[in-house]
Design brief:
By secondary structure, the chain is an alpha+beta fold. The chain is built from 4 helices and 3 strands; from the N terminus they run βααββαα. The radius of gyration is 23 Å and the shape is elongated.
């Protein structure tokens, strides 16, 4: 875990930015000895946001399943995927 005083961002921006990119970890900035901000590179931020969104979607699906929503069998999913692939391939020919 990287912890730096908030003044470090002004004094060492390039160093902190490079550390964020290199480690793909956030840097925690403190002010008066207390946690204040978290800084991370945009790629890491986007990856974390996508992961959070996926977890939310999985949780929603699991809650639906628990409450009795009907799911799909493996054969049904495979058939839907084949249909989608055929449809996409058909569109590609006309373009």
């Amino acid at each position: 875990m990287n912890i730096r005083p908030s003044a470090a961002i002004r004094q060492n921006y390039n160093e902190i930015a490079e550390m964020c990119r290199k480690t793909a970890e956030p840097v925690f900035l403190t002010k008066n000895g207390e946690g204040d901000l978290v800084v991370m590179d945009i790629e890491t931020f986007n990856r974390r946001e996508k992961m959070l969104k996926l977890r939310e979607e999985l949780l929603a699906v699991e809650e639906d399943r628990i409450h009795g929503s009907k799911g799909y069998s493996v054969d049904e999913v495979a058939a839907m995927m084949r249909s989608a692939i055929k449809e996409a391939a058909g569109r590609g020919k006309s373009e």
